[in-house]
Amino acid sequence: MQKKSLQTILYSTAGVVVMLVILIAFNFVAGAARKRLDLTQEKAYTLSAGTRAILKKLDTPVTIRFYCTQSEAATPETVYLKGYARKVEAADGVVRCERSMDDMLETVEAPLPAAVTVVSEINEPRIPGLMQIMKAKSKPMRVWSLADLGVEAPAPVREVVSNLAEEQDRKHILFEGTVAEQADAFVGALIREGVLGR
User: What's the average model confidence in pLDDT over 163-175?
Assistant: First the structure.
């Protein structure tokens, strides 16, 4: 009985040691491969193919700053970019990005060379919320005439000549004889025209 329990303990210890060796070996191989997986829905931690191509051509170090929402209750599902750039300018050896925050504008500078990328939602219109719609209703509306803008109305380029249907030539065929003869002649004419099959 003691021999059996000692054998079980030895097998269990050997199994744990083998599992540790496998885990360490896997960690070593994975660390050497230097591959990372981006499991976020919007691929927030993945560089696009265009950005990678640009970075490969650079011969100086590039500093990347990533801005995201900071919240105590932040989860991977709720962490998105806080705001997007409204304006991007490159001058005097730096790139300036201006972005709109909740109640202010923030300007961020980075020395050139710098890589500026876009997100997949580019050119998608932002849908206003209920508060923005209510505020827009109270704003005064100014109507501009063409004279206010210094523009003259162009001459009309389309003229309606007629709205009647196009006239068609009629054959004016009259059938003579009794009603039965007229019916036979009418059916024969329809067959000759291809309207009725034989």
Answer: 79
